[in-house]
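Box S2. Input/output pair 1.
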Amino acid sequence: MNAKLKMNMKLSIITITAILLLALASCTNPVSSSLSAADPVPVPEPETGIDVDSAIGLVAGLTLDSDILLSYPGVSVSEDAEGNATIEWVEGLSGTALKGDENGDFIRIADGTLPELTVAGSVEVWVKPELNAVNYYTGILHKGDNPDVTPEWYFVDETWTMLFHADSKPYFFVVTESEDGTVTPVSLMADTAIVKGEWSHLAATWIYDELSKDTVIKLYVNGEVVVSKTLNGIGPVRDTDGDLIIGSQLPVPYNGSNYYTFKGLIDEVSLYNVARSADEIMTDYQVYASVL
């Protein structure tokens, strides 16, 4: 091999080595990194207690934990005369649950904090009535806060409500409004009561079809449809300025004496802007049913 060829080979080896050293230096040099040592570390968003998942229509998955939920704007709880919270938080299905008693315990979410559920909606909740409690007309979830009633005997700003009409018999009630302004209340009640002292899953769905003018409303207990109604021409659920009340029908006593508070535990409240299917409701029920 002649001297010129040896020299060219030596230069090639030196060049390749230099390129490799430069590449290694760029990988280890913090100055060349896209996130320098001086850049702030991204801070995770704080928990609000209200989960949202637009992919499945979830507009409010409520974490019933005072430290988290109460930090969200528009959320408050019942208080005594001295301004102290009367809510009692106990162990629930996941984290803590709201424990209601006859004293009017409730969580209040101001109107406008969550989207209105008019044309379509679903509500789901887990409840555990106290063993010796009598739950007549007691509210679990109630959209409306005015104690005044109409001549038809529903509250003037009521839109929808999940409650017990008879003792521990699940009951779902909506107030619809047609295109001509006619207001129509619709009620669905289960034939049998749920078991006291045990957890039960309650759900309701509704949807208004603008073409057929049909409004379909369903009540579920432990993943199964127990009542279904299809009505024509009544319109979607109406929109009012009423707040959402959790744990009572009202945030003030009706006729000065009764909040219609649910006596027992409430947990895992979810609101959707779509009518969940029967399969989806059953799946949601089985999340905790399999471990109870």
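Box S3. Input/output pair 2.
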Amino acid sequence: MKELELKYGCNPNQKPARIYMKEGELPIRILNGRPGYINLLDAFNSWQLVKELKEATGLPSAASFKHVSPAGAAVYVPLDDVMKQIYFTDGMELSPIATAYVRARGSDRMSSYGDFVALSDVCDASCARYLSREVSDGVIAPGYTPEALEILQKKKKGNYVVIEMDEAYQPAAQETKDVYGITFEQGRNDIKITEELLTEIPTANKNMTDEAKRDLIVALITLKYTQSNSVCYVKDGQAIGIGAGQQSRVHCARLAGNKADNWYLRQHEKVLNLPFKEDVRRADRDNAIDVYISDDYEDVLADGVWEATFTSKPEPFTREEKKAWLATMTNVALGSDAFFPFGDNIERAHKSGVTYVAQSGGSIRDDNVIETCDRYNMVMAFTHVRLFHH
């Protein structure tokens, strides 16, 4: 297949629309459904991300994409009991690739609602069963077991998009795109992100664990396919906060840090023990939890909204309790797609338990950033690599 006609482009008025190869065949097979323009943008960007994660770590990898940026990304690390509870997977048997996607979706479950999924490994029945119960638009993977494909073909009344990617495909060295009738051309960003990028450590603390190196690699590869400016917080092999497309880097750090904080607050015993009614859907639970851990939750609950969700009104989750719990979050890794121009980014990162940092370096205020890291005994690597993505 050399080209694929699409229903429309980004919006219904943008017709005609298609994808095509200037040379050779398309490296995909559509096994089910009819992908749209944005589906395919998400599919091809997310596939690159998980392919590189697998190559860099050797671990099954997954990503959850929305509007051409990852809502979450992760490599396989087994789930403990708390993670199983906050990801609603108690009692489920999860394969390594299924676990990787559960973690990726768990980074920001609200943003992952209606996502496009990418898997580095063959989608098995375990992963397909998990996908079948979550709201998403489609999946791209190097293959599917017969049982997995049968499960996925029933999703969304038979319209779930299932794409098989040719693992051997290699894109051209030069890439082009048109903007306002003008063609842009550049070399493809084929830089490899490995531990070698983490060897220059200008901070006083130079003790970087193997787990920290893994997490920083996850952060940097995730940033490579995130709309810039961007920063990414990672813990235990999964993104826990991604800030994308902000004009100010400190706003990225705040946005991603707030998401990381929400991820950790979900693990507090008050959240774990919320008295949900049995028939409340997972998406509604996610929304209710997001409200409960917000600063204005008492005003919302006072309106009687809780009666539709909980068997009884939840106990207040005070700012003091949240602050005390967040103070216990440690060993978080933070990556940035370019240099931090001010120490304020590090100050914000410290509030979310960051111990390890990777950034390009090269700011005229590098000394101030290093000094701020030293104040909190952080380990920071200068990668000398910028990862802008547009």
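Caption for Box S3: The first strand starts at residue 3 and ends at 6. The mean pLDDT is 95.
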